[in-house]
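Quick start: what a row looks like.
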Amino acid sequence: MNFKKLTIAAAIVAMTSLSAIAPVYALQAAAPAADAAAPAAEPAPAAPAAVVSDAPVPNQYSLGHLWEEGDWISKAILISLAIMSAGTWYIFFTKWVDQQRILGQASAVEKKFWTSATLNEGVDKLPKDSVFRGIAEAGLKASTGGTTLVGMSDWIGMTLTRQLEDANARLQGGIAFLGSVGSVSPFVGLLGTVMGILNALIAIGVSGQASIDQVAGPVGEALIMTALGLGVAVPAVLLYNYLIRRNKMITEKLRAFAGDLQAYLISKSK
């Protein structure tokens, strides 16, 4: 009986202890859950919205940017290349027009001069600004004037040769400029490139930073000078060769006309 009473008393004490401890464990288990749920309840801070600008990004490799950011040396080189290019095209068009006019006069000589009854009539049929008319008038004057120092044939030949030399000099006038531009403009552009790279290296050395964006921009702008120099030189060389080739063709026509005229005048003077 005493053992039974002790057992019952021990059970009562154990149940009392469990009932007292259970709320404490419940509170301790609920606390971490509440702490874990608390941050989730707070709203997260909104990320700042990206600002989109509609302003155009300047092109660092354009002529406008090069002119605005370049120093006086770069501007002087750009002006020099522009003058060379403008002069090249102006001389080409003016000389081409002159050559076309002389070629047209050569056709008129075949149709009007040599089909005339007399030499004076043939001269009158040619235009007053014709190169062939100037040669014909000089030859006609030499055949009527005469000289006792040299023979008539030599005198007429020397007179016509001087007229041919004057005509060739007028044909060649200005074409040498194209050859000079074709030879010099690449070096002018290269000078601009060298000065641009030098300025870029100086700026990088002063800043102490050699990132790719600081190197690519200035060097790219400097290389534009070389491209411009080649862009001026290549057309100048091509146009120079084209005009020289046409001048040779015109010179042959003038020389053939002078030779035929000399033979005609000598035959008439005998």
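That is the whole record. The chain has two domains: 1-35, 63-269. The chain has eight helices and no strands.
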